[in-house]
Design brief:
Layout lengths: L1 E3 L6 E2 L1 H5 L4 E3 L9 E5 L1 H6 L4 H5 L1 H7 L3 E3 L5 E3 L3 E3 L2 E3 L7 E8 L5 E7 L16 H17 L5 E13 L3 E11 L5 H9 L3 H15 L9 H23 L1 E2 L21 E2 L23 H20 L3 H12 L1 H18 L7 H17 L4 H12 L4 H4 L5 H12 L5 H5 L9 H12 L4 H10 L30
Parallel strand pairs: 1-5
Antiparallel strand pairs: 2-9, 3-6, 4-11, 7-8, 9-10, 10-12, 11-12, 13-14
Helix pairs in contact: 5-17, 5-18, 6-7, 6-9, 8-9, 8-10, 8-11, 9-10, 11-12, 12-15, 17-18
Length: 487
């Protein structure tokens, strides 16, 4: 194993030191021919990393885990999880490594994590590798989510390994370097709880409080306050998903963070036509993780988190359950409040419009969009033109003209703010047909479509000449869209 100068990269192994029972020291598999596909230079600068060094030979070896700084302890993290509703007591990082925590120049501490770095003892029969396409998908969509204002893990780089990956066909392999506030998940708490080690569970909760929700440390009931903070963070996060038309696709408990960041972009996608029943994932035949089910699934996952924390809430189990239920009940009201605030912004409604009127107006519109199979992103962006007096862009998207004309008349009478709407309704999202087009090209060696797509989606609210095809809906012949986990 090579050693990088300490002055180049400084990684803290706090997770491994504080929670050694959940951290398995491990090494990435050698990448025979690392080649940089994409580097997030602004993010590198935020982390205090030198982009020029990252582009060089040592930097590339660092980004695939083959060059580890002195003092760092790469680990595969242990966690459990409910996958599609069924509990798996031992999951963990089967193809991933936490390199350590980076302290950025502003003092913020963030995980630097690899995905596709090779098989670990948690791999459960998998090869631990990842292909170029899925890793670039996570890069594109996570950076688009960041630009849309949705809390998310970030992508620092995708590096081709020079190693083939065997799936249905042989594909080029890659490693994604990912950045997160942490990789603590609901599944982390499930794993700790299943060990029966109350001290481990308490240390994990204290670690989460220190890392993400420090205000809980001063609360009368610190662990209950931690749970309440996670509930609030997830209510806000899922509301943001719904507002931008994002479908996560695999909302297992091991894919729900304690920080409130979106994580693990596998079979994810964005709505084209608005439909609450939309499912993209190939493994979700029953629609458990459909677009419209996401708030309910988030609440279910939070209930599983509450179960793990009961011993920390109170010594008396009945009292602990009562406290957990009271806290969990706030999820729905917090989600509704966040959703309504976001929808008010999307509709440009002034402060004087009562919440009841805003809710009725939004509900009527969404029902109209669903009944008419209207492109979600195009419609809301077009509403800005309607607020300025030109309703044709949105009228042209709806078959039921009488219904949309009536709705538009009532909405415009409220005085919507077109400029404010343009700040929250994107022109560009990672359109599914464009994502597939770009990834197919990248697998074939042409990265220009990925770069062009990133140019559009990382500045989603600014309409620019030359990017018209990135603003339009999918062509009619695109057909049903199916995504895969990418494992």
């Amino acid at each position: 194993m090579s050693i990088a100068p300490v002055s180049t990269v400084d990684l803290d192994d706090r997770f491994a030191r504080e929670l050694g029972e959940m951290a398995l020291p491990w090494q990435a598999e050698p990448a025979p021919d690392p080649r940089l596909l994409v580097l997030n230079e602004p993010l590198a600068a935020e982390l205090g990393l030198d982009p020029d060094w990252l582009r060089g030979p040592d930097g590339l070896r660092f980004l695939v885990g083959n060059l580890v700084p002195d003092g760092a302890t790469p680990v595969a993290q242990a966690y459990a999880g409910h996958q599609c509703g069924g509990l798996v007591p031992r999951l963990g990082d089967g193809r991933a490594l936490l390199l350590g925590e980076v302290a950025s120049p502003d003092g913020q501490r963030r995980d630097l994590h690899l995905k596709g770095s090779g098989r670990t003892p948690f791999a459960r029969g998998g090869d631990g590798l990842a292909a170029v396409g899925p890793m670039l998908r996570e890069y594109v969509i996570s950076e688009a989510m960041q630009a849309l204002g949705v809390p998310t893990t970030r992508s620092l780089a995708v590096v081709a390994t020079g190693r083939p990956v065997r799936r249905e066909t042989v594909l080029p392999g890659a490693v994604l370097a990912r950045v997160a506030s942490s990789h603590l998940r609901v599944g982390s708490f499930q794993y700790a709880a299943l060990t029966g080690d109350l001290d481990l569970l308490r240390r994990l909760a204290d670690h989460a409080i220190s890392r993400h929700h420090p205000a809980a440390a001063d609360a009368p009931h610190r662990y209950l306050a931690l749970f309440e903070a996670v509930v609030a963070a997830q209510a806000s996060l899922v509301a943001r998903w719904m507002l931008v038309g994002f479908v996560h696709g695999v909302m297992n408990t091991d894919n729900m963070t304690i920080s409130g960041e979106t994580i693990d972009y596998g079979p994810c996608a964005f709505l084209d036509a608005y439909d609450q029943a939309t499912v993209f994932s190939s493994i979700d035949a029953g629609g458990r993780y459909a677009y419209g089910n996401q708030p309910l699934v988030a609440e279910w996952n939070l209930a599983r988190l509450a179960e793990t924390l009961l011993p920390l809430f109170a010594d008396d189990e009945d009292r602990a359950v009562a406290l957990a239920m009271e806290a969990l009940e706030r999820f729905r009201e917090q989600y509704v409040a966040a959703s309504l605030a976001g929808m008010r912004a999307k509709l440009g409604l002034p402060a004087g419009v009562e919440d009841a009127e805003a809710t009725a107006l939004a509900d009527e519109l969404l029902a109209l969009l669903q009944a008419n199979h209207v492109d979600y992103t195009s419609f809301f962006r077009g509403l800005g033109s309607a607020a300025r007096g030109d309703a044709e862009p949105v009228r042209g998207l709806v078959l039921d003209l009488a219904a949309i004309d009536g709705w538009l008349q009532r909405w415009r009478a409220l005085g919507p703010d077109a400029q404010a709407m343009d700040r929250v309704n994107p022109v560009y999202i990672p359109r599914n047909h464009l994502v597939e087009e770009a990834l197919t090209a990248a697998v074939g060696g042409d990265l220009n479509p990925v770069r062009r797509l990133l140019e559009a989606v990382t500045a989603p609210f600014d309409e620019r000449p030359g990017l018209e095809r990135y603003a339009g809906p999918a062509p009619e012949d695109f057909g049903s869209y199916v995504t895969f986990c990418g494992t």
